[in-house]
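User: Some background: our group keeps a shared notebook of sequences we're curious about, and every so often someone picks one and asks for a predicted structure to add to the entry. Today it's my turn. The entry only has the sequence so far, pasted here. Could you supply the structure so I can complete it?
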Amino acid sequence: MAEKSSIDTNSMTLTRFIIKEQKKVPHATGDLTQLLVSLQTACKVISSSVRKAGIAKLK
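Assistant: Of course. Here's the predicted structure to add to the notebook entry:
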């Protein structure tokens, strides 16, 4: 019998949401979308660096 995962695989990612909302605006240039995705990437990089630094201090 297969176990059910508690992770929702159909969840809306931030990127998908941003693109979906951009498509609602016919005259959108994509500049805001690009800015928001860049901020998202920067947050992920910072988060990764903080996690790595935390692990290094545990040694």
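Suggested note for the entry: The chain is about 65% helix and 0% strand. Residues 14 and 36 are 9 Å apart (CA to CA).
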